[in-house]
Amino acid sequence: MADPTFIEVQKALAGIEYPAGRDDLVRHARNNSAGDHVLDALREIEDRDYEGPNEVSSAVSDATGGH
To answer: Is residue 43 part of a domain?
Structure first.
């Protein structure tokens, strides 16, 4: 399965308030009906607080090998 795109991740996280931790990001994405590949990628990122969408996207890229 393909890694999620920046747009897919941001769509899944629309409306979330930052800073947000990994579990908050996963829960919010699930509530926004994100696809499994987006949820799986978010579960792989480091467990810390993220200050904004760019930090999340960078962490997802790092966690999925930057594909």
So the answer is: yes
